[in-house]
Amino acid sequence: MIRAPLHDRLEHGLAALGLALPDGASGRLLDYLALLERWNATYNLTAVRDPAEMVTRHLLDSLAILPHVRGSTLADLGTGPGLPGIPLAIAAPGREILLVDSNGKKVRFLREAIRALKLEGVRAVQSRVEELQGQFDCITARAFASLADMLGWGGHLLVPGGTWLAMKGPSADDELAGIPAGFRLCGRHTLQVPGLEAERQLLVLGRA
Fold first, then answer.
1. Is 136 helix (H, G, I), strand (E, B) or coil?
2. 136-142 vs 200-207, strand pairing mode
3. 57: helix, strand or coil
4. Could you tell me the pTM of the whole model?
5. Tens of pLDDT along 59-105?
């Protein structure tokens, strides 16, 4: 992985998003990608294999929701290889973050990433969402499930007054009718991810 062009791509993308990250965060984000690339060769953690595309589809796509993240605790459901949870942890440290996935090999990668990147306050757990305990100020879910399913399985995890951030594509409108009782749509935002032509939407949900 040749870092210089990836660093430039990342920095240009962050500027386009209007994000200013802590010192050293860009380097740690690329460290995360390098680790993901190494593990991906054996464990097939993501279908995206080109490092430049990883910068766009993994890092910038995840960080596009950063201005909407709220609270001191966050659960990232169906996190896969740590998206968006690990980029959010690097970009905005100090929050307690729980990375949740039911896939054992992905959770093994997550635990190694937490150790290698020295991510304080970040934990990974192998669990089905409906079996998870606890409550969180903010919940993120990226391409995880339909709104009906994700809130049905994990709605108990959101504190009263908390924020649920569902990252969706253009079909999000079709899912709005499935929002279960007790929850409501609080806002929606079109995400302009630099370098990504696909339409991305962020649905912000809360308790009714």
1. strand
2. unpaired
3. helix
4. 0.97
5. 999 999 999 999 999 999 999 999 999 999 999 999 999 999 999 99
Task: Show the domain range for 30.
Answer: 3-207
| Distance (Å, whole) CA 106 – CA 98 | 14
DSSP state of 181: T
The domain that holds 129 is classified in CATH as 3.40.50.150
Which tokens hold the place of 49?
């294999």
**How far is the C-alpha of 5 from the C-alpha of 147, rounded, in Å?**
37
- Please give the C-alpha separations between residue 80 and each of 77, 160, 200, in angstroms, as whole numbers: 9, 26, 19
Number of domains in the chain: 1
- CA distance to 16, 44, 104, 127, per residue, from 79 (Å): 25, 15, 12, 11
At which residue do the structure tokens 């339409």 appear? 199
If one counts every other C-beta atom within 10 angstroms of the C-beta of residue 93, the result is 16
Burial class (CB in 10 A: 0-12, 13-18, 19+), 160: exposed
